[in-house]
Amino acid sequence: MQNYDFLVIGSGPAGQKAAVQAAKLGKRVAIIERQAEIGGVSVHTGTIPSKTLREAVLYLTGWDQRGLYGRSYRLKENLTIEDLMQRLHITLNHETEVMSHQLSRNGVTVIQGEASFIDEHTLQVERPGGKLEGFHGEKILIAVGSRPVRPEGVPFESESVVDSDGILDIKEIPKSMIIVGGGVIGVEYASIFSAMDVKVTLIDGRERLLDFLDRELADELVHHMRDRGVMLRLSENIDRVEEKEEGKIVAHLESGKQVSAELILFAAGRIGCTYALNLHNAGIEPDSRRRIKVNEFFQTEVPHIYAGGDVIGFPSLASTSMEQGRIAACHAFGKSACQQSSDFPFGIYAVPEISMIGRTEQQLTKEQIPYEVGLARLRETARGQIMGLEDGVLKILFSSEDRRVLGVHILGEGATELIHIGQAVMLLSGTLDYFIENVFNYPTLAEAYKVAALDAYNRLNG
């Protein structure tokens, strides 16, 4: 039996940051990872791969230069899956190398194998080859992540049917595809593949896509997707999937409609990877989607066992997972740490990008909070002209009473970077005046903040 102060199950964003934080507090720490390489879903099938694929597509198709050189502009004709995977493999190898070095530098032991609870302090780890080893942890963090939901009756054994993990293993770029699920993952892949001129049909049971977004931005994204030929089938649900002999896959909808394509991607929800953990031996009961309930310090119902990342559910972002791991490690060893703010930025890496923080117009209206809107079009900035931007909007919501920033919503190039300016001002209780009175580098897209603020100022002053 090997003893550790802190055992971490899973090496994704939450697990890594928790392990490093505990090690910096002088604790003996080990990460148990069932895969051959560290990084978890975030690095190998989720966040990093999808964003790398997006960058490769935008570069190789010449998408981000078409505003200057026309819609027919292509950097590379006859794009292949090998072209895309080359960049992906380079990125993943570098990322895992950096992570391994960080863990090694901080004295964190990495143990390859699949962990399960024997009791609330003891883990059994099945090593590659089948050897079993025991580990005792004074404190334990569960950060095993999630996997895609696979609906029953869908022929996932077919090469024409994949989930959001399997999409990276396709052999060639399809001419047509169906995406089931209009959440963040489904929308990202729909826009990425449509940028490669793939005929995409997106199916979702809800009336609107991404209904947590500011409605104006969501509508703008839908407009761009439709403009690129994406067919939206909203308020529709899949009844069954049929594979045809000629290599086509047919989705039969509950409404009686049929949609056929070369490939179908299911991106309709995720479930916690907790089946193999034997959580009942530790006194923990997951919910119906195998997620673990935690308190504000990320403690489970067993006080010395913590959980973080996708396995605890919303918001299931790599960025928030990192903070969850850090806070959990601090709390476990009596180190004070700020609780995670309820205001954090969302980033959607569609084409174009979307990012937001704070409240939407719909929320402010429902809460009866008076507000004013400042709006700027990215194409109207000098930097936008230089870059050839055709789309993009930056929207700031201000209080009508004290001019404080209540929310920032951005669609367009660099949205996930630009959002942090608004985040800082909002969380520091900044007002409209900050953007008006301060100097921004010129020419930059960040200048859109000043343009939007001046727009709001004109509205507030009639």
TrEMBL record:
Domain spans labelled FAD/NAD(P)-binding: 4-325
Cofactor(s) it depends on: FAD
Keywords: Cytoplasm, FAD, Flavoprotein, NAD, NADP, Nucleotide-binding, Oxidoreductase
Domain Pyridine nucleotide-disulphide oxidoreductase dimerisation residue range list: 346-452
Residues that bind NAD(+): 181-188, 269
Cofactor details (free text): Binds 1 FAD per subunit.
GO cellular component, as recorded: cytosol
UniProt similarity note: Belongs to the class-I pyridine nucleotide-disulfide oxidoreductase family.
Protein name: Soluble pyridine nucleotide transhydrogenase
Organism: Solemya pervernicosa gill symbiont
